[in-house]
């Protein structure tokens, strides 16, 4: 029996109650029709995304409020998840290993110095070999083609733990955090997607993989997006098209800016990320010049007329030039809650895509 079937009328809230904006409309049935792989959330419907968040909320509640250290049914019992990491990681590695353990499975870490991935063996060959010995692959790679190649030739589900174009588990954690905050402010909302409807997120920073996943996912869930990046750092046309298609289904808005003050106007959520990603170290000096004026601060929010109860999010690790300490360590900041939710959404994803079907 699915653990979600135990939720009667409401999704449990992060504080242990069953109200708090949890709503009454559930989307757990949408988890029965998920794609085999999770490459990008653009492949998932809003209802499927909501179902994963509901599942994550449930697992967090059971662990933190009812003391459930491990899933009683052990849906990954006897299963191994291959964790292929070609880039270093903190949150993603901790979240994935603890998630596998919570569900009764075994996480096999395969770092870039441990295997021949794309070095002395092709990705195709590695995918076929590794997938013949594990029950799922969670891969943190570089180019987008690496994750799609792994999925194409793998005989087991592949979950994208990060690539240069996408980071789906991060955005699931972001959405879960947004629900936890705004669900309490909207106690009469009828479900997770109803909590999201009408919110506005301002992205102030680089046009990177987190930005791509954000703008391709949030509008179809009902969240309007103000996307702000400097001239010369555009959002690709295909990502814009995904954003516009999603917005049409919910009446959300997608707007583009280069002036951060304009971008935060009316924002409920202000988000930024690193300006210099791994592999871009040689560009740091130029990027520091290009992103001058992009540091998120209380002054920026005030000048731009952000909504009075705006919150700040960042996927971490954070550097001081991206956001002031005054914001980062303030009551408006939910960055550590957001980081923790990487675990709960990874548990939900592992359970849905890799768990025993009887659980």
Automatic annotation (TrEMBL):
Q: Which organism is it from?
A: Coemansia guatemalensis
Alphabetically ordered keywords of this record: Amino-acid biosynthesis, Arginine biosynthesis, Transferase
- GO CC terms in record: mitochondrion
Family of this protein: Belongs to the aspartate/ornithine carbamoyltransferase superfamily. OTCase family.
InterPro entries reported in the protein's UniProt record: Asp/Orn_carbamoyltranf_P-bd, Asp/Orn_carbamoylTrfase, Asp/Orn_carbamoylTrfase_sf, Asp_carbamoyltransf_Asp/Orn-bd, Orn/put_carbamltrans
The record, for SUPFAM superfamilies, names: Aspartate/ornithine carbamoyltransferase
EC numbers listed for it are 2.1.3.3
EC main group: transferase
Origin: domain of life: Eukaryota
* Domain Aspartate/ornithine carbamoyltransferase carbamoyl-P binding intervals: 36-180
Which pathway features in its UniProt record?
Answer: Amino-acid biosynthesis; L-arginine biosynthesis; L-arginine from L-ornithine and carbamoyl phosphate: step 1/3
Pfam families xref list: OTCace, OTCace_N
Q: Which GO terms describe its molecular function?
A: amino acid binding; ornithine carbamoyltransferase activity
Q: Which residues form the Aspartate/ornithine carbamoyltransferase Asp/Orn-binding domain?
A: 198-350
Q: Name one GO biological process term.
A: citrulline biosynthetic process
Name of the protein this chain belongs to: ornithine carbamoyltransferase
């Amino acid at each position: 029996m699915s653990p979600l079937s135990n939720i009667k009328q409401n999704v449990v809230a992060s504080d242990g109650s069953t109200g708090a904006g949890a709503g009454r409309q559930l989307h757990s049935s949408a988890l029965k029709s998920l794609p085999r792989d999770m490459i990008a959330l653009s492949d998932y419907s809003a209802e499927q995304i909501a179902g994963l968040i509901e599942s994550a909320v449930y697992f967090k509640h059971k662990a933190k409020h009812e003391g459930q250290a491990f899933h009683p049914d052990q849906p990954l019992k006897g299963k191994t998840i291959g964790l292929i990491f070609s880039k270093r990681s903190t949150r993603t590695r901790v979240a994935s290993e603890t998630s596998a353990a919570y569900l009764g499975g075994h996480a096999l870490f395969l770092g870039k110095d441990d295997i021949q991935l794309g070095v002395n063996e092709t990705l195709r060959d590695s995918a076929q070999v590794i997938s013949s010995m594990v029950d799922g692959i969670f891969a943190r790679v570089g180019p987008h083609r690496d994750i799609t190649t792994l999925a194409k030739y793998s005989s087991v589900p592949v979950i994208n733990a990060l690539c240069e174009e996408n980071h789906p588990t991060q955005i699931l954690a972001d959405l879960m955090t947004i629900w936890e905050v705004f669900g309490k402010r909207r106690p009469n909302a009828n479900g997770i997607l109803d909590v999201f409807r009408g919110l506005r997120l301002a992205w102030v920073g680089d046009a990177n993989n987190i930005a791509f996943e954000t703008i391709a996912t949030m509008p179809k869930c009902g969240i309007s997006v103000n996307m702000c990046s400097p001239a010369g750092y555009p959002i690709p046309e295909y990502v814009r098209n995904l954003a516009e298609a999603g917005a049409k289904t919910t009446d959300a808005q997608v707007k583009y800016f280069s002036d951060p003050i304009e971008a935060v106007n009316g924002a409920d959520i202000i988000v930024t990320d690193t300006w210099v990603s791994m592999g871009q170290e040689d560009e740091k000096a130029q990027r520091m010049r290009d992103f001058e004026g992009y540091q998120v601060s209380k002054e920026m929010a005030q000048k731009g007329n952000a909504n009075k109860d705006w919150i700040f999010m960042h996927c971490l690790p954070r550097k001081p030039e991206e956001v002031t300490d005054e914001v980062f360590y303030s009551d408006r900041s939910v960055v550590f809650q957001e980081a923790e939710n990487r675990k709960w959404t990874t548990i939900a994803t592992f359970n849905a895509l890799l768990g025993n079907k009887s659980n």
